[in-house]
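Hi R.,

Here's the chain you asked about this morning:
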Amino acid sequence: MGQKSCAMTSTPPPDATPGEHVAVLGTGLIGTSVAMAAARAGCRVTGWDIDPDTVAHAAARSGLEPRPRLEDAVVDADIVVVATPIAAVAATVTAALLAAPGAIVTDAASVKGHLVTDVLAVMGDDVQATVRYVPGHPMGGSERSGPEHASASVLDGIVWVVTPHPDTDAAHTEALESWIERLGARPVRLTPERHDRLVAMVSHLPQVASTSLMGLAAKEEADEPEILLLAAGGFRDLTRLAASQPALWSEILVANRDQVASAIELFAARLLALRDAIARGDTAEVESLFERSKRARLGLATKPTVRSGVAVWQVEIPDEPGALARITAVLGAGKVNIEDLQIVHSPEGGRGTVHLTVAASSAGSCADVLAGGGYDPIRLA
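And here is the predicted structure, written out as tokens:
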């Protein structure tokens, strides 16, 4: 990847210097992570948050320059990233467009359709402003929140969706995509409507499913107090998202309600079809459903560059400080690249299981390296 410029004018002068000024509005997990990645890429970063303590904490972690007002943060900015809670995004975007007439303004909201409509309605006929609005959605983050959990690595290799509206200037879209690449993410261009439909299935529905499963188990605990004591790795993996922020997710799901409701209906139909196959004792059909899903999951490589498929190895490790570092060091010394890694703690305690995903072409060498390091790997896929 060649050197990119962070100067965000659509037709920069020949002597424009690369990487000048990015403003981040909203300094929670995503906003602060963007600030850290931008600073790492050589951009000057200013930031503002409605909570002075939050922006001060973000500044201490990320090196961004805190500003007391939105207008102060965006002065002379080339690009403005709005990363506020979803209810405040439209108002913050419009304020940034008016306060920073030379900047491209984007956002990090996980719902685009209603947001774009609201922004354009407020801006009205101000085409000079709306051409600079390039909506976006970095597909990164975690169930945690706040600047204390931020990291530039949140942006590394993720898909960052860019959803230009009909009035967006094409040069601004291309400039934003170049900047996203410099931060280490991968821009993918979609319409706002298509974005909302797809994220309802792969982002919003998993949150609903995780929360519903955890709620069901918690309700059953009233009659069966031991039920959660039996929760092993699969249950913990599936319910991890249930630890997410309730206020944040209620806003997101309601904002994308039509698409989320449709995704839930499709998922419910799948569950009912599986229920019926199990109830009638149709082993072949159940196995077929599992097999199709397994093949699809194994094709879901963490990195898009892994085209030859992946292999998954299970390795038991002691549940003690340094255990994970030792196994990754063994693989590093053996020149085995890890595509994905999960840790599953045993409910009995004292040990854990690591699931290592590597490129299929590295499967054999991975097994040899692990065995040589004293581990006993079991291939799952």
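One quick note: The chain has a mean pLDDT of 87.

Cheers,
M.
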